[in-house]
Amino acid sequence: MTTGPLVDAGSRARHETTRPVLEVRELRKSYGDVAVLRGIDLDVRAGEIVSLLGPNGAGKSTFVSIVAGLRRADSGSVTIAGLDAFAQPRAARRMTGLAPQDLAVYPVLSARHNLRLFGELAGLRGRELAARIAEVARALRIEPLLNRPVGLLSGGQKRRVHTAMALLHRPKLLLLDEATAGADVETRGYLFDVVRELAADGSAVIYSTHYLQEVEMLGASVVLLEAGTVIARGPVRELVAGHSTPTVEFRFAGPAPLVVAEPGREGFAECHGDLLRIATPDPAATVAATIPALGEDARRLRGVEIVQASLETVYLALTGRRYGTGGELS
User: Fold this and answer.
1) Cα pseudo-dihedral 207, 209, 211, 216, rounded to 10
2) Rounded to an integer, what distance in angstroms lies between the CA atom of residue 319 and that of residue 229?
């Protein structure tokens, strides 16, 4: 997509630096007796898209809120473009663009006035502000909506305006927390195009989501969170190659029998209630061999599902639980 420059010409000098734009060390946060972040370490470099991936409650939004300066950490450090974000919060926030999960727009104001207000808060004025509004509006396809009250826009249109506000000041670090929540397919496509373009021009991007398919669509590097800890980090292909094996799941009426039709592979089979799960490099052969081995239990078989190697099976291999629809675990 051709949208015009979202960042300064030359992709900004920071694109060439070797120091990460974001450096997080031993970040911890608890609410009462509940530990939400348990010592997170993370570096994100200029031009990199990092997806924080995990189910609801994994700690993604808390992490983003602390990095953005909206919440205090119990301990640890956050450095943004060389600035200590805890000691210099205002300076660090000027380097950061945030689009939180909850929409932060004024419904009675027009889209243009919302953008102007947030642009001025970020230090933009006059012609520079007008030019940036035009650029982000063109990139996110909200030009025809600029003079309409935001309260009259659709959910997807509001989401685009909301995201545009985070881009106005050309942030060195862009934080998108559940950016496509409630968004339509068209809006999702525009957002992904903008994220890729910003990264290509030198921004460091953290994209928090619980949708596995979005990570694969973006081609992002993955930080997989589970109960406030990082359990995997790296490009999708490397994670799949290093942690994932296809599985076959047999669903029964009543408790599943532990049946393994391939000798020597007992360690790859497990039962969870009515579910028999077998990890195998050859799912078709495993199905063909296992069904006859069920004997009388075959009468209770209610379904067979082959789960190919993917981020879903990476999560399964690391936690023993499957990702379900909407980030729910099963």
Assistant:
1) 20
2) 12
pLDDT in the model for residue 307: 87
C-alpha 200/C-alpha 298 separation (Å) is 54
Contact predicate 146/17, CB 8 Å: no
How far apart are alpha carbons 136 and 142 in whole angstroms? 8
Task: Please tell me the distance from the alpha carbon of residue 227 to that of residue 272, in angstroms, as a whole number.
Answer: 21
Residues 6+ apart with CB under 8 A from 92: 69, 78, 80, 81, 83, 84, 85
pTM score of the predicted model:
0.79
**DSSP 8-state symbol, 111:** H
Rg of the Cα atoms in the chain? 23
**What SS3 state is found at 128?**
helix
pLDDT tens digits, 289-299: 999 999 999 99
Strands (E), the chain: 22-31, 34-44, 49-53, 75-80, 83-84, 96-99, 173-177, 204-209, 221-226, 229-235, 247-252, 269-272, 275-279, 301-307
Helix, strand, coil shares, percent, the chain, to 5: 40, 25, 35
Cβ neighbours of residue 45 closer than 8 Å, sequence gap 6 or more: 20, 21, 204
Nearest alpha-carbon partner for 137 in 161, 113, 108, 166: 161
The greatest distance separating any two alpha carbons of the chain, rounded to the nearest whole angstrom, comes to 78
